[in-house]
Design goal:
By secondary structure, the protein is of the alpha+beta class. The chain has helices at about 20-35, 40-50, 55-60; strands at about 1-5, 10-15. The protein is built from 3 helices and 2 strands; from the N terminus they run ββααα.
Length: about 60
């Protein structure tokens, strides 16, 4: 568990993922993407849409 305080808001993360090192997180993402994790694939597509083609995204809004 990890806690953050932002203004009057307390954010509590109940996941062991936050305890991983940066290297372990990177490895986890790489393995999960190779396995075809559908949630990570959706996140990857959304991020790529924002960064790879921001002009066409702005036209669609």
């Amino acid at each position: 568990m990890k806690e953050y305080q932002v203004g009057n808001t307390k954010i509590v993360i109940h996941s062991d993922f936050v305890l991983l090192s940066e290297k372990e997180k990177k490895e986890w993402f790489e393995i999960e993407l190779q396995k075809g994790n559908p949630i990570l694939k959706e996140i990857e597509a959304a991020v790529n849409a924002c960064y790879l083609n921001p002009k066409s995204r702005a036209k669609n809004n």
